[in-house]
Amino acid sequence: MHNFQWISPTKVIFGKDTVKELEAPLKAAGVKGVLLVYGGKGTFKSGAYEQVTDMLKRAGIAFSDLNDVKPNPLISKVREGVARVKAGGIDAIMPIGGGSAFDTAKAVAAGACYSGDIWDIYAGKGKLQDAMPIYGVLTASASSSEVNGISVVSNPETQDKISMSGLCLYPKISVIDPSFQITLPEKQTVYGGVDIIAHILERVLDGDTGNDLLDEQSYALIRSMMGVIPELIENPKDYDARADYAMAGMMAHSGFLSLGRKTRGDFSSHKLGHSISLLYGAAHGASLSVVMPAWARYLYVENPDPFARLGEGVFDIYDGEDEDRALEAIESLEDFFKEINAPTTLRELGLKEEDIQKLADNASKLVPFGSLKALNADDVLEIYKLAY
């Protein structure tokens, strides 16, 4: 186990009817006006918007809306929010939604404290220094953005989907009421669940060893998600299953599972998936269910150990040589994705064979990346070919 430092400054308020518990801390912080950041109809259907605005009215706190935040959130929406905040009257940012709303809110919060264009920070041309306070209400678990300091946005003009991170981007408080997720469409539950599993896999498949404690925690979380997702497909109103799902989502990419690891994780699959989402509009979770098995198939012969251990820890695969168990584990993961109707090929996402090179060119702007193996442009192209 490697040395580590750990800080998790976000206060989590978890459970039913907990939005009202934001009133006192907002008052104590002297907040007079907030910018609500959210997507569309789902925010209202879940009941979250009504509960948030009722709470703000009781507290005497003014609010305005930055709505129509898209999945794979856009820098243009961030810039719109920054302009609104700089016009005055806003003391805090309040996302209501999932990762897209939280990522957008973080970017707005940082942009409001930055003299230049916020994209400069994502592109490495500017320095993240400060951000406005963020108080979030989660309505869709997937990215752990409610408890981490990471923001990912897309810029169609430059054809980039990249992240920035910093301690100032952690929400002050995040309310996680699993009942808000009961109204989610089935596909969103599936794709969010795939993202949660992928965040965990990025750790246990990073090639690091000597961290059995958190590896076992990770395998348990994956097994739990593999039970919970089918339960929610069958019964989307099961509150306890929703709570388990939301808890796993909170833990998966909070940084906790990276403690004692050599790196924070591999994250090659996420980078490969980002190009699919950016260029072809695929849901983030759908890009991961396609790319992660292909990435694993490309690497397992040279690096069988983490995949063989995944087979033991998640799928009870004990027989055979490491390479055999590794392949069986990858096939089992892919079979699970198929069982929950997540795509496993680029063809299912509507891509054509001639699109593969375009994907590879986009993703290769970031090479080398990955810790199990540092991928180069040739590796990237071969993985997309396997994913087709």
Kindly list the characteristics that best describe this protein.
single chain, 388 residues, alpha/beta, Rossmann fold, Dehydroquinate synthase-like, alpha domain, 2 domains, six-stranded parallel beta sheet, two-stranded antiparallel sheet, 15 helices
Structure explained in plain terms:
- This protein is an alpha/beta fold and 388 residues long.
- It has 2 domains: 11-180, Rossmann fold (3-Layer(aba) Sandwich); 185-387, Dehydroquinate synthase-like - alpha domain (Dehydroquinate synthase-like, alpha domain, Up-down Bundle).
- The protein is built from 15 helices and 8 strands.
- The strands form 2 sheets. It has a 6-stranded parallel beta sheet with strand order 1-8-5-4-2-3, sandwiched between helices. A two-stranded antiparallel ribbon has the order 6-7.
- Strand 6 (150-155) and strand 7 (160-165) form a beta hairpin.
- Helix 10 (268-280) packs across helix 11, helix 10 (268-280) packs across helix 14 and helix 11 packs across helix 15 (377-387).
- It is globular, with a radius of gyration of 20 Å.
CATH superfamily of the largest domain: Dehydroquinate synthase-like - alpha domain
* Euclidean distance between termini CA atoms: 37 Å
Please state the structural category.
alpha/beta
CATH class of the largest domain: Mainly Alpha
The beta-strand count equals 8
Largest sheet descriptor? 6 strands, parallel
Structurally, the number of domains stands at 2
Number of DSSP helices? 15
Return the CATH topology of the largest domain: Dehydroquinate synthase-like, alpha domain
Q: What sequence of helices (H) and strands (E) makes up the elements? A: EHEHHEHEHHEEEEHHHHHHHHH
* Unreliably modeled segments: none
Strand content: 5-15%
What helical percentage do the residues reach? 40-55%
Which second-level CATH architecture of the largest domain applies? Answer: Up-down Bundle
The average pLDDT score comes to 97
* Bulk shape: globular
In spatial order, strands of the major sheet run 1-8-5-4-2-3
Tell me the Rg in angstroms: 20 Å
